[in-house]
Amino acid sequence: MPAQPEPGGPAGPVKSRRPAGALARSYLALTKPRIIEQLLITTVPVMLLAERGLPSLWLVLATLVGGTFAAGSANTFNCYIDRDIDEVMARTRRRPLVRASVTPAEALRFGIMLGVAATALFGFAVNWVSALLADGAIVFYVFVYTLGLKRRTPSNIVIGGAAGCFPVLIGWSAVTGTVGWPAVLLFAVIFFWTPPHFWALAIKYRDDYAAAGIPMLPVVASAAVVTRRMLGYSYVMVAASLLLVPIAHTGWPYLAVAGSLGGWFLFEAHRLVRQVRRGGDIQPMRLFHISITYLTLLFVAVAVAALTAS
Q1: Is 249 contained in some domain?
Q2: Which of 122, 149, 189, 221 could staple 66 via S-S, CB 3.0–4.6 A?
Q3: 124 lies in a domain?
């Protein structure tokens, strides 16, 4: 009697022959490591600010590993939920679930394991306030942004972007066991930074989002409307960054750096508005890349201010 095929057709034999290295790379890709790197950049400076110096190396390491697990969990759930639209968008077609290098069930289990590991590590090695904040970030990103907002409203990234602000709260609470006003203010900086950062990318990939049925603001509004809103959020972001001086006593050197970086960001945001007003080609990715540099250098300035004030 001929052997019966394995359930699911060829998926069984293919799964058994996957090289371990390729499988590990697929799991890593599910976590979106470049996004995690951005999140962690904001965590350590806030810990230094909360400590007004250097926290213990063990605490920093536990917080970073826990934060990596939490962000990786949220991103993996995002890949699981959005695998249908990832297949439509050119920017995301090479993600593991689209290429079938990992099955949906495997991705779901992996996301759950990372979330459990993050909660346990934060709870037992850091504190339970940080654990609850990490869980809150995962829940917010998965249920509020990915499931609730992303496919329904142009305000998706404005509200949903709050998920990316949680690392500063976690970093502060890891040191103090509470959430202080400086952390809330830095939360606001990232919150208002997110729309101009992400909408710049969405302008570039507008056709992708339109094809996938995602109502990003650049899909449903004119470029003039989008760039004006980006400029408005940029002004509020810069104002929040400067308020850190009286709130957290970061000093004049931080003020000089934050002011210079903010002026640079606003100049580029105004440039994009002018490009749209004049018509022709615009260069949104310039502001996108500048926004990453801005946030990185701003938090470096926070770290330096914390260390020099100790």
Answers
A1: yes
A2: 122
A3: yes
Task: Say what the pLDDT of residue 14 is.
Answer: 43
Q: In this structure, which amino acid lies at residue 278?
A: R
How far apart CA 15 and CA 7 sit, in angstroms, is 12
φ and ψ of 142, to 5 deg: -75, -50
In the structure encoding, which two tokens stand for residue 240, read together?
Answer: 């929040």
**Range 75-84 burial, b when 16+ CB lie within 10 A, else e:** bbbbbbbbbe
Split into its structural domains, the chain has a count of 1
Q: What is the CATH number of the domain that holds 228?
A: 1.10.600
CA angle 236, 241, 246 (to 5 degrees): 120
In a domain? residue 301: yes
Decide: 69 and 149 in contact? Cβ < 8 Å: no
Positive or negative: CA dihedral 292, 169, 31, 216? negative
Domain coverage including residue 157: 24-308
pLDDT confidence of residue 172? 98
Position 19 in a domain? no
Q: What is the pTM of this model?
A: 0.91
